[in-house]
């Protein structure tokens, strides 16, 4: 699988006259959304790029002094991500920071391989650090028991809510949004063109409350409260353009194709509202099952 992903991207990039835009990405993936389904790279803004798979977002944010990569994809995605970065005309060795949204294998599975290939430093929220350093899922994760181990990585910097990563004029702010996982992080930054016209980009973490079959949130009031906190913070993100780790979660490809508005200052509020309503439905079912 790894070699086939790499070959697809190399063959595709060899005939590209210019990096495809979001329309090209949406068309290339179509209805495919597998974690390892190969996707072409695409420009999402002036300095914001898509270098992931059809099912899992990996976001590259570039600057004259180096680049930042957010998320890594599943374990077999590293060759695809590296080839996509190269196809855009950037050097993987110029990636200085590796960041991520949450500590599950579909988003950090390739992190160790990308760290080795780029030499970049990894930053993580304190709430996610132990998981990615050990490669062992946390027992307090609602999905514990169905999560896979990942290759451990070395963490250079521990982050707290509202900390920033600054590089070459870029400022990326981390927001601790513990809805989907205990260590969930969302990221915001400004994407500005040559005329200083800027859009607020929000790479908002997953907002689904998936769990193992036996887990009930009503039995874990601390976790329930953290979900509520995360949903509140997601709703408050500065958000002209919403990106999500799973493109389908925010209809990313539909919006990139022009079938729905890409720029929407209400997108994060709507994203959090839908997630909150679904969480309320889940809690109601859990309480009903007690009777």
Structure overview:
This protein is of the alpha/beta class. The chain has one domain (about 1-290): Metallo-beta-lactamase, Chain A (4-Layer Sandwich). The protein is about 35% helix and about 20% strand. The strands form two sheets. A seven-stranded mixed beta sheet has the order 1-2-3-4-5-6-7. The chain is globular and about 55 Å long.
Summarize the structure.
By secondary structure, the protein is α/β, with parallel strands linked by helices.
Write the SSE topology.
Elements: H1 2-13, H2 22-29, E1 42-43, E2 48-50, E3 59-61, E4 67-70, H3 78-87, E5 95-99, H4 105-108, H5 111-118, E6 121-125, H6 126-134, E7 157-159, E8 164-167, E9 170-176, E10 185-192, E11 198-203, H7 221-235, E12 241-243, H8 252-256, H9 267-290
Parallel strand pairs: 4-5, 5-6, 6-7, 11-12
Antiparallel strand pairs: 1-2, 2-3, 3-4, 8-9, 9-10, 10-11
- Please report the number of helical segments: 9
Average pLDDT figure: 92
Shape assignment: globular
Strand order across the biggest sheet? 1-2-3-4-5-6-7
Can you tell me the number of structural domains?
A: 1
Name the structural class.
alpha/beta
Poorly predicted spans: 1-19
* Main sheet summary: 7 strands, mixed
* Structure summary, number of beta strands: 12
Keywords:
Metallo-beta-lactamase, Chain A, 12 strands, disordered N terminus
């Amino acid at each position: 699988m790894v070699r086939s992903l790499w070959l697809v991207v190399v063959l595709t990039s060899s005939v590209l006259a210019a990096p495809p835009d979001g329309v090209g990405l949406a068309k290339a993936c179509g209805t495919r959304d597998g974690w390892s389904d190969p996707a072409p790279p695409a420009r999402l803004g002036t300095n914001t790029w898509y270098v992931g798979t059809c099912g899992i977002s990996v976001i590259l944010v570039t600057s004259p002094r180096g680049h930042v990569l957010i998320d890594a994809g599943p374990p077999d995605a590293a060759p695809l991500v590296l080839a996509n970065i190269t196809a855009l005309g950037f050097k993987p060795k110029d990636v200085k920071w590796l960041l991520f949204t949450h500590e599950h294998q579909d988003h950090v599975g390739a992190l160790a391989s990308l760290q080795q290939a780029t030499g970049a430093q990894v930053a993580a929220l304190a709430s996610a650090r132990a998981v990615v350093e050990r490669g062992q899922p946390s027992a307090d994760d609602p999905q514990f028991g169905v999560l896979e181990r990942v290759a451990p990585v070395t963490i250079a910097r521990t982050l707290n809510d509202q900390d920033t990563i600054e590089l070459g004029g870029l400022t990326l702010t981390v927001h601790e949004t513990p809805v989907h996982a205990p260590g969930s992080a969302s990221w915001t930054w400004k994407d500005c063109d040559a005329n200083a016209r800027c859009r607020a980009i929000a790479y908002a973490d997953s907002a689904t409350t998936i769990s193992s079959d036996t887990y009930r949130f009503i039995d874990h009031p601390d976790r329930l409260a953290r979900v509520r906190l995360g949903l509140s913070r997601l709703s408050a993100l500065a958000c002209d353009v919403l990106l999500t780790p799973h493109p389908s979660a925010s209809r990313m490809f539909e919006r990139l194709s022009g079938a729905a508005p890409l720029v929407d200052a209400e997108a994060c509020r709507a994203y959090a509202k839908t997630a909150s309503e679904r969480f309320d439905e889940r809690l109601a079912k859990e309480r009903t099952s007690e009777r």
